């Protein structure tokens, strides 16, 4: 089940992110999604330093981008983070990129993520429990 987005990050398209066709380069969408995931984690109380201190770090295992409408210079975009938690070692993250001006979904980034134990270099068996224990606002992650 997909939880409703509990966190959104606002991004303004910058000039150096534009390609020769006048719209956002394909890889920039990944940068926007990555930035939004880290902002979401930080809002939940899980800064990179907090995670490192506890010997874990999120990793991306798979990412797919569906492009729907162009983004152009100076567009304001809201990037959501919707977590789909299961019972295994991974979670799915759906990230709609919505243009502020008219509410158009410009793209959707879908990912599979895990929580890496930095000591063993293996996925944490129960990432939900670990994240719930470390987060100061786990509800932001849909936990």
UniProtKB/TrEMBL annotation:
Taxonomic source organism: Pseudonocardia ailaonensis
Name of protein: Acyl-CoA thioesterase
A Pfam match: 4HBT_2
InterPro entries the UniProt entry points to: 4-hydroxybenzoyl-CoA_TE (IPR050563), HotDog_dom_sf (IPR029069)
Lineage: Bacteria, Bacillati, Actinomycetota, Actinomycetes, Pseudonocardiales
């Amino acid at each position: 089940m997909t939880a409703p987005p509990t966190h959104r990050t606002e991004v303004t398209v910058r000039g150096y992110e534009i390609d020769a066709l006048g719209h956002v380069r394909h890889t920039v969408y990944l940068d926007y999604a990555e930035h939004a995931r880290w902002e979401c984690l930080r809002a939940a109380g899980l800064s990179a330093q907090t995670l490192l201190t506890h010997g874990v770090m999120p990793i991306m295992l798979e990412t797919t981008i569906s492009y729907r409408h162009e983004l152009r210079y100076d567009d304001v975009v809201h990037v959501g983070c919707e977590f789909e938690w299961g019972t295994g070692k991974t979670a799915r993250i759906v990230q709609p990129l919505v243009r502020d001006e008219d509410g158009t979904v410009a793209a959707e980034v879908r990912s599979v993520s895990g929580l890496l134990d930095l000591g063993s270099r293996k996925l944490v068996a129960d990432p939900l429990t670990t994240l719930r224990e470390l987060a100061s606002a786990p509800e932001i992650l849909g936990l």
